[in-house]
Inverse folding.
């Protein structure tokens, strides 16, 4: 659990209907606010997100989007408010900022339908680094981590409106969990938390409470994460990217089963004990 996840929900007035009876009540509801990222004073992107773990979010987003190559390229992060939203001003090194400006210039100079030309396609499907890792995990340990993640989502337990991304080790330890109303945001926050704590991304598995989309696989590959396990289904493009990037992709993760779509050599088959 993160330190400030409990601040990302507020009590709201509701009217409950049950068995024909009407009852006024108060219920916790997850907050969803615009979060605007700027790099060296230049606006870059706005996401709708839970207002928690925003420094983790800034670091993870910067890494998973390839804006910086390493967390130490980020010089400073300032979080502020603007109206009903939140501003996150990220100061990055000159080399990373020059690359970001060139990327923005290239995108701004394009015309047409957006996905017709080769350059546009390369932007939509950018190449991913290949993950080199000797990480391996027992199959029953993966089930253990899935159960631990299900029990370690305080914001979802209160509101029922958020996703989670967790970090698991081969010994069954669930080291980190980050929650957000957006599944991509939850993974970015996890990646940022790993970087800020200097936890080796090559020695663990990212667990998601969502489907495994191509963007989620790409973020893991960009961060050097060798294995992604999701409770829901993958997409065909996610499988293709995971295969090319050397990422083990597991999905349909339940208490008694899961499916592995790529690089199952990282899984050591064990018999799941009855619990």
């Amino acid at each position: 659990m993160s330190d400030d996840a409990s601040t990302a929900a507020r009590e709201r007035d509701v009217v409950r209907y049950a068995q024909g009876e009407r009852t006024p009540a108060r219920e916790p509801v997850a907050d969803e606010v615009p979060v605007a990222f700027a790099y060296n004073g230049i606006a870059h992107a706005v996401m709708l997100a839970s207002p928690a773990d925003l420094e983790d979010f800034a670091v993870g987003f910067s890494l998973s989007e390839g804006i910086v190559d390493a967390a130490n390229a980020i010089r400073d992060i300032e979080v502020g408010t603007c109206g009903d939203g939140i501003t996150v001003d990220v100061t990055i090194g000159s080399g990373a900022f020059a690359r970001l400006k060139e990327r923005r210039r290239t995108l701004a100079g394009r015309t047409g339908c957006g996905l017709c030309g080769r350059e546009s396609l390369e932007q939509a499907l950018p190449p991913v680094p290949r993950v080199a890792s000797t990480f391996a995990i027992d199959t029953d340990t993966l089930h253990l981590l899935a159960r631990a993640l299900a029990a370690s989502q305080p914001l979802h337990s209160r509101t029922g409106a958020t996703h989670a991304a967790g970090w698991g080790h081969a010994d069954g330890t669930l080291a980190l969990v980050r929650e957000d109303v957006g599944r991509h945001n939850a993974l970015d926050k996890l990646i940022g938390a790993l970087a800020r704590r200097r936890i080796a991304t090559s020695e663990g598995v990212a667990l998601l409470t969502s489907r495994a989309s191509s963007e989620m696989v790409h973020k893991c590959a960009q961060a050097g994460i060798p294995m992604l396990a999701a409770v829901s289904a993958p997409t065909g493009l996610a499988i293709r990217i995971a295969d090319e990037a050397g990422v083990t992709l597991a999905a349909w993760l339940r208490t008694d089963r899961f499916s592995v779509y790529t690089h199952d050599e990282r899984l050591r088959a064990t018999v799941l004990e009855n619990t």
Notes: The domain at 137-268 is CATH 3.40.140.10 (Cytidine Deaminase; domain 2).
